[in-house]
C-alpha cells in the first residue's frame, strides 16, 4: 500500500505543476517559440521573477530544463517527461485503452 501511495504522491506532485494556466501557456511558449524569461514575461505581461517562479515549479517537476544563454535564461521542454507523466496518470487510474 505504501508504494501505491508514494506513486500517487509523485504523480500528483508532477500533475500539480500543470495545474496553473500560466504554466501551461509557458510550456507551450517554450515548446513552440523557445522564448527567454524576459520574452515570456513581456508577452504575458507579468514580471520576470514571476516567470522564474513558474519555471522553477516546472523544473522541479522534471518537465523542463533551464540553461543560461549569455545573460538570458532559456528553457527546454522535456517531452519524454511529459509523456511519462501522462502514462503514469493513466496507469495509476487504471484507465482502459481507447
UniProtKB/TrEMBL annotation:
Sorted UniProt keywords: DNA-binding, Transcription, Transcription regulation
Database matches in InterPro entries: ArsR-like_HTH, HTH_ArsR_DNA-bd_dom, HTH_CRP, HTH_MetalResp_TranReg, WH-like_DNA-bd_sf, WH_DNA-bd_sf
An example Gene Ontology molecular-function term: DNA binding
Signal peptide: none
Alphabetized Pfam families for the sequence: HTH_5 (PF01022)
Residue intervals of the HTH arsR-type domain: 1-97
Cited Gene3D superfamilies: Winged helix-like DNA-binding domain superfamily/Winged helix DNA-binding domain (1.10.10.10)
Matches recorded under SMART domains: HTH_ARSR, HTH_CRP
UniProt protein name: HTH arsR-type domain-containing protein
Amino acid at each position: 500500500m505504501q508504494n501505491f501511495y508514494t506513486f500517487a504522491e509523485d504523480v500528483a506532485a508532477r500533475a500539480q505543476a500543470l495545474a496553473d494556466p500560466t504554466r501551461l501557456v509557458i510550456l507551450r511558449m517554450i515548446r513552440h517559440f523557445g522564448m527567454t524569461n524576459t520574452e515570456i514575461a513581456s508577452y504575458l505581461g507579468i514580471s520576470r521573477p514571476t516567470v522564474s517562479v513558474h519555471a522553477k515549479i516546472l523544473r522541479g517537476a522534471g518537465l523542463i530544463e533551464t540553461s543560461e544563454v549569455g545573460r538570458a535564461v532559456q528553457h527546454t521542454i522535456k517531452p519524454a517527461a511529459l509523456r511519462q507523466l501522462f502514462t503514469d496518470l493513466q496507469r495509476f487510474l487504471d484507465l482502459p485503452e481507447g
